[in-house]
């Protein structure tokens, strides 16, 4: 059986139309890197783009704002144009700026306008903590108690959120909804189209955190009518640690004053008038605040160029091949070792990683690292494994499962403590 599974892996890799792109990335010899949903690997094109932008500072100094292949003054807009196809948006509806958290603060400051009738924010209880912190702080800034004005839809199983439960919580006192497109633990894809339609039928604005979906699954935000979205770029987009994030605002909201105004949200033709009365851009660019972080955005030119060539549909197809093969191997090779697959099995409900649970998860992750496999631990008992379409192989999936099986057979994980590291 092992031979046939290995042959299956080799066949999947032979037929992989994206296999040439593996050579685009820096991979450590002998290491199996399955943590691209936390931090994507560096590509050679990203490195070249960073080198170019660094050189433009050296070569042009202040004139780099208007000279070179990537003038700094319009850099955020150019990156937005490259990003827009990944989320199904018009280029004017996207801007590359800020961080995930600062962009959520901006969007809440802009669109959360509590009234006597509508003064609650709706989210889920499985969302990433930074979104929850931002929501609570925004309520408090309005003098509202999060204990009474923040509604969190409960998970039925601790892993997934049922759309019908979210819809049932869309009460007439809800002003705005913030949800993840893909849940960061289980990898569940929420039905964004359905939830947007239901929210709008009730007069509620809705926005999505795309951190775990952009660059991994297709979106059609403009067609669906999503009001706004925000995301990081260092996971599936491979923009590098701390790379500049992005946000989307549906064009029907253009002209809405930014809740957190700054001079880079100005109309580009008026920005250097230096007027104390802001003339905001009539695009998503209005929701920028300060000067772009040029060197932190630079790698995205190289990274997004690859996505432009490949197309998100081809990436999704390969991703599903890898995660389906991984789940198959777990069920066959790791049967009896106490692992539970806790992500959705259906392709349309599963993002780009597999989520295993085990009582000894923390120490198993440490044991995997010792044998040169890089997983991602999520407290208290979660192991996230993300074989990335652009640079991982099915044979690596097979090899990783064999290394994990060996760890379990010989109980080498018991050499380690079952507690997370400072960063996990």
From TrEMBL:
Pyridoxal 5'-phosphate binds at residues 100-101, 128-131, 209, 212, 234, 263, 291. Pfam families: KYNU_C. One of its GO terms (cellular component) is cytoplasm. Its cofactor is pyridoxal 5'-phosphate. It catalyses: 3-hydroxy-L-kynurenine + H2O = 3-hydroxyanthranilate + L-alanine + H(+); L-kynurenine + H2O = anthranilate + L-alanine + H(+). Its EC number is 3.7.1.3. GO terms for molecular function: kynureninase activity; pyridoxal phosphate binding. The keyword Hydrolase applies. NCBIfam families: kynureninase. This is Kynureninase.
């Amino acid at each position: 059986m092992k031979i046939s599974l290995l042959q299956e892996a080799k066949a999947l890799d032979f037929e992989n139309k994206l296999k040439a792109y593996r050579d685009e990335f820096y991979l450590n010899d002998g290491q199996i890197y399955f943590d691209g949903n936390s931090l994507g690997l560096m590509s050679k094109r990203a490195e070249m783009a960073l080198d170019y932008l660094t050189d433009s500072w050296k070569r042009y100094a202040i004139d780099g704002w208007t000279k070179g292949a990537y003038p700094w003054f319009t850099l955020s807009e150019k990156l937005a144009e490259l990003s827009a196809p990944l989320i199904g948006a018009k280029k004017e509806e996207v801007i590359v700026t800020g961080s995930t958290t600062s962009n959520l603060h901006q969007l809440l400051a802009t669109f959360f306008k509590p009234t006597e009738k509508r003064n609650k924010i709706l989210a889920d209880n499985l969302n990433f903590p930074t979104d929850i912190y931002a929501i609570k702080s925004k309520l408090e800034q309005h003098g509202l108690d999060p204990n009474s004005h923040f509604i969190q839809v409960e998970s039925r199983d601790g892993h997934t959120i049922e759309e019908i439960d979210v819809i049932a919580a869309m009460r007439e006192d809800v002003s705005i909804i913030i949800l993840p497109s893909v849940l960061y633990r289980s990898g569940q894809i929420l039905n964004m189209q359905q939830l947007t339609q239901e929210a709008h039928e009730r007069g509620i604005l809705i926005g999505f955190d795309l951190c775990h979906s952009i660059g991994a699954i297709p979106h059609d935000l403009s067609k669906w009518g999503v009001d706004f979205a925000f995301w990081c770029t260092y996971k599936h987009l491979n923009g590098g640690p701390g790379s500049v994030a992005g946000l989307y605002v549906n064009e029907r909201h253009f002209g809405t004053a930014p809740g957190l105004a700054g001079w880079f949200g100005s109309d580009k033709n008026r920005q250097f008038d230096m007027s104390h009365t802001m003339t905001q851009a009539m695009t998503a660019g209005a929701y920028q605040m300060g000067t772009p972080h040029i060197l932190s955005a630079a790698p995205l030119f190289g990274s997004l160029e690859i996505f432009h060539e490949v197309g998100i549909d081809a990436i999704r197809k390969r991703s599903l091949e890898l995660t389906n093969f991984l789940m198959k191997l777990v069920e066959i090779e790791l049967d009896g070792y106490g692992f539970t697959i806790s992500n959705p099995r259906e392709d349309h409900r599963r993002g780009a990683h597999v989520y295993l649970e085990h009582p000894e998860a923390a120490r198993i992750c440490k044991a995997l690292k010792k044998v040169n496999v890089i997983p991602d631990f999520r407290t208290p008992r979660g192991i996230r494994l993300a074989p990335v379409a652009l640079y991982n192989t099915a044979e690596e999936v097979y090899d990783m499962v064999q290394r994990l099986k060996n760890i379990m057979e010989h109980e080498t994980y018991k050499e380690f403590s079952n507690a997370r590291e400072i960063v996990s």
